[in-house]
Specification:
single chain, 364 residues, alpha+beta, four-stranded mixed sheet, two-stranded antiparallel ribbon, 18 helices, 8 strands, 52% helix, 9% strand
Length: 364
């Protein structure tokens, strides 16, 4: 398989649908109303797959979305017909997947004859959104609901591609989750600035103690928080850590900030961390002001309440952004813990829709 020319997974799946799956569906289910897409989890959905990605959960695959009644009526028949009539190879790749191993990983396997063990999955839009968010996509989304949706899952739902939308629902539902409403967006920006304010003075304090390791750890954490803030500024969901840097490099502000972040992370002198990171603070502060979401906030660097630490006083940006929020439910939220992503980066938590939805108890 690895000798086959690499085709990005999203392109491969689109061609697989157009050239193999669709003709079979038209032949055997000519009146079936459905949508076809590749969305959800997977590096290929985000466009980050490489030849290395072919070693698990990668290959010719897609989802067929049906109405509730049709899904119950046709799912087994569709699976059976495709198993019998799909080609055993497509563009040089097997169309059969092995059984999941003990942690659920599936690999492409060579299967020259017999039924194809394909990954053309039939489901309803409702069941798919419930799987990722534990939320009915046809319901109204409250401001508190938005705070319980991990950005990685929102990204998974809104990236990828809808190849065909015969149901005339999938594109509409994806657009519904495209990005946060304004006041939720403002709250997340305020909470992100607040997170920065909680640590910005610690670099200087570590330097006073000669704590090189502590200074570097805090600097790295602040770089991460500033990057997250930039995703918010550009209204772009961020992916989880594996793709975080790659996604950041595609932001408009990346060209100016990446050299600074690289320099500060490469520095082993804790007294340099403040001065280098201060350049990034000023740039990010100016980016905030360029949005026009608050009255201009001074973005210069100053000492920390008489202590000789170089900070931007990020809490001022946080307070100004909170003042711009109109929704009373959001204005009164204390403490400023923000969304599930700002509260925790634990993968097991963020990948459990039931658990993250219970996060709403913090706002009651």
């Amino acid at each position: 398989m690895h000798m086959t020319e690499f085709i990005p997974g999203l392109k491969l799946s689109k061609l697989f649908y157009q050239e193999s799956v669709r003709p079979i569906l038209e032949k055997h289910f000519p009146d079936l109303n459905y949508s076809a897409a590749l969305i959800g989890h997977g590096s290929e959905v985000l466009g980050y797959d490489t030849p290395r990605s072919r070693d698990h959960h990668w290959g010719p695959q897609l989802q067929i979305f049906l109405s509730g009644n049709d899904c119950e009526k046709y799912s087994l028949d569709i699976k059976s017909v495709l198993s019998k009539e799909l080609p055993h190879k497509f563009k040089g790749y097997s169309t059969s997947f092995g059984d999941p191993d003990n942690i659920g990983v599936q690999l492409l396997v060579d299967k020259p004859d017999g039924p194809v063990n394909h990954k053309v999955v039939t489901l309803t839009p409702k069941s798919f959104f419930r799987y990722l968010l534990n939320f009915d996509p046809y319901d109204d989304i409250s401001v508190i609901d938005w705070l319980t949706f991990p950005q990685q899952e929102l990204l998974s739902l809104t990236q990828g591609e809808v190849f065909w939308d015969g149901l005339d629902e999938l594109k509409t539902l994806r657009a519904k989750f495209h990005y946060y409403p304004k006041d939720v967006w403002l709250l997340l920006i305020a909470c992100q600035w607040k997170k920065i304010s909680q640590q910005e003075a610690f670099i200087g304090r570590c330097a006073e103690l000669g704590d090189e390791l502590g200074s570097k750890l805090i600097t790295s954490s602040l770089v991460n928080e500033l990057m997250r803030l930039c995703f918010l500024f550009e209204k772009t969901y961020f992916p989880y850590s594996k793709w975080f840097g790659t996604a950041f490099s595609q932001l408009k502000c990346a060209g100016e900030l990446i050299p600074i972040f690289t320099q500060v992370l490469n520095s082993s002198n804790c007294r340099e961390h403040e001065s280098i990171l201060s350049k990034a603070y000023v740039i990010v502060g100016n980016l905030h002001n360029s949005l026009g979401i608050t009255k201009p906030v001074e973005s210069s660097i100053s000492d920390y309440f008489g202590r000789p630490y170089m900070v931007i006083h990020a809490d001022r940006f946080s307070d100004a952004t909170m003042d711009a929020i109109q929704d009373e439910k959001l204005k009164v939220i204390k403490p400023r813990i923000g969304s599930v992503d700002q509260f925790s980066d634990n993968t097991d938590f963020l990948s459990s829709p039931r658990l993250v939805r219970e996060f709403s108890i913090f706002y009651k």
